[in-house]
Amino acid sequence: MKDQPLRTSVIGSYPFPGWLEFSAQHLDQFGSADVAELQDDAAMVAIQDQISAGLDVITDGEQTRFDFNLSFYGFIEGIALEPASPRRFGPPAHDQRGKHEIIGELKAPRGLGAVEEFQRLKRLAGGSGKRLKVSVPGPYTLSGRLAPNQQYADRYAVTEALLPLVRQEIADLVAAGAEEICVDEPSMSCYGFREDTGRFVDIFNRTVESGYGQARICTHLCFGNFKGHPVGYRKYAPLFPAFFDLHCDEVHVEMANREYAELEIIGEIAQRTDVAVGIIDVKSYYIETPENVADAVRACLKLAPAERLVFAPDCGLSQTARWAAKQKLANMVAGVVLVKAEM
Fold first, then answer.
1. Do residues 315 and 282 lie in contact, with contact meaning Cβ atoms separated by under 8 Å?
2. Which tens digits make up the pLDDT trace of 80-99?
3. Dist. CA 286–CA 279, nearest whole Å
C-alpha cells in the first residue's frame, strides 16, 4: 500500500492458549454464555499479542476455528464428518486427515461463520488503530477433504459447489464492513505443478468477484503446514505466469522456510500488485533476530519497491507454540523498523 510501505501483517491463525485447547475438549461442560466468553477471551489474547508485537495488520487469530476446514464444514449442510482418522499412530502429518463423506447437496444457509468472526474482531479491536483482516479458505482448498461421490464426480465438481458459498461469504463480509479479506488457497500452490493453472485462476476470480474492488482482497499461496509439515511440491515457478492474472490486491508467498528460493518472483508480482513476503519460518523454532529480518527486508527491496512490500510469517501460526510465535512476531516488526530507520 502506498500509504503504508513495508507493512507488517499475519496470515490469519495464531496459537491457541493451552486453556482454550483444554476447554475445547470439554465443551459439554460449558453453557452457551460460557462458550461466548471463551471465544471473546481467546480472540482478545491473540489480538493483544499481535498489538504488543507492533503489527500493522491484525486478525482474531482464528481462535474460534478449532480446525482449518472442519470449522467451515460445520456450517455446510450435506457433509458427514469422518468418525476417525485413517492413521492414528506414528508421526503426526497430513495422512492422518482423511476425507469426509458428502451425503447431500452442499449448501450453507447460515453462511460460513467468518462474518461473525469479523464482527467479534471489530468489537474487540476496532479502536486499536490497527487494520483488521479476516480470512476464508478458497473453494478449491475447502474441497480438499471432501470425498467426491455420484453427485459430485471429482474435486472440481465439489469446488464448483462450494464456490458460490465462499463468494457469498465474501459479499457478506464486505457488507459487514471488512476492509481486508484474505482468500487462502494453499491447495492451488501445492498442486499447481500438476493441474491447469488457468483453471485455478478462473476459479479464484469467480470466487472473489463479490469483493474485488470493494475490499482489499489478498491471497495466501503456501505449500502446507500441518503439524509443521509441508505437503506440496514447493516451487512457485509452475504457477506463473498464469497467477499474475489473479484478481487480488496482495499475493503472499512463503519464502523463509525455503531459504528464499525464487525470491526474484516478488519483483514480477510487484509489477502488478502488492506482494507479502513470508520472512518468518513458522515450521522452525529458530527465533529470527531483528537483524536476520532486516537482511531479508533489504534483499526484498532490491527486487520490489517499498510501497509494494508487506512482511509476514510464511503461513498461519497455529502450528507454532505461542511463546515462539510471540517472539517471532516481535522480532519481525523490529527488523522491519530497523530498515525503515535506514530509509
1. yes
2. 987 778 888 887 777 777 78
3. 13
182: β partners? 135, 218
Direct distance between the N- and C-terminal alpha carbons of the chain, in angstroms, rounded to an integer: 17
Here the cell at position 266 is 516478488
Q: How many residues does the chain have?
A: 343
- Average the pLDDT over 238-253 and give the result: 96
Write the Ramachandran bin of 158: left for phi over 0, alpha for psi from -120 to 50, otherwise beta.
alpha
- Bridge pairing between strands 100-107 and 77-80: antiparallel
Measured between alpha carbons, how far is 75 from 114 in angstroms, rounded to an integer? 10
Q: Domain 7-68+107-342 falls in which CATH fold? A: TIM Barrel (3.20.20)
How far are the Cα atoms of 104, 108, 152, 261, 274 from residue 248, in angstroms, in the given order? 32, 25, 28, 23, 9
Which residue type occupies 161?
Answer: A
Which 3 state secondary structure label does DSSP give 238?
A: helix
Which whole number is the average pLDDT over 247-271?
96
Rounded Cα–Cα distance for residues 251 and 276 (Å): 6
